[in-house]
Design goal:
The chain is about 35% helix and about 10% strand. The chain is built from eight helices and five strands. The model has no long low-confidence stretch (mean pLDDT about 85). The chain has about 210 residues and is an alpha+beta fold. It folds into two domains: about 100 residues, Ribosomal Protein S4 Delta 41, Chain A, domain 1; about 90 residues, Structural Genomics Hypothetical 15.5 Kd Protein In mrcA-pckA Intergenic Region, Chain A (Roll), CATH 3.10.290. The two termini are about 30 Å apart.
Length: about 210
Amino acid sequence: MAKYTDSDCRLCRRESVKLFLKGDRCYSPKCAIVHRKTGLTVPGQHGSARKKQSEYAVQLREKQKAKRTYGILEKQFRSYYDTAARLRGNTGENMLVLIERRLDNVVYRMGIGASRSQARQIVNHALITVNGTTVNIPSFLVKAGDVVAVKENKRDRTLFKELKGEKAVNMPKWLEFNNAALTGKVLAIPERTDIDTSIAEHMIVELYSR
């Protein structure tokens, strides 16, 4: 399976916006976006050159930003679009809701993982259960009422011990998480207003509709 192995900070610089790919580092002065040397300079030999972007280029950048925010590659991202197009309602909003329902994203939103990449690794290593059953597929889609928890025999790991003493912050209203019990619940299917990522999904729809 294809996997991105280059610097995560390089992706933020390419999109000229924080994608929050490195956990706590993104909130520190070490963040590539706020760094005094790199700043918002696009990586590469011609990164500092100013170019007028075409309509296609703007749409492409929006799609790339969405893919990189959630850590999804092209084939799977297009699959979410195709599924969303078959559903009732706004295609762009349906697509973002589907992606938000991914288990790795839910683990990240609950604060179990500091970043989506760490959350994906936690799921891959079979440390998470859904309704009491171990799930190691990051793309697994949760439903309203699902109980997501850290596996009982893995809760003594350092990562989870530290989590028990923390207080959940910025928890989306469609999720709840008990830090002491390391158990959370999906209260409802998220709506577009619940998703705080700054993505213009209509541009992605326009791009794929060409």
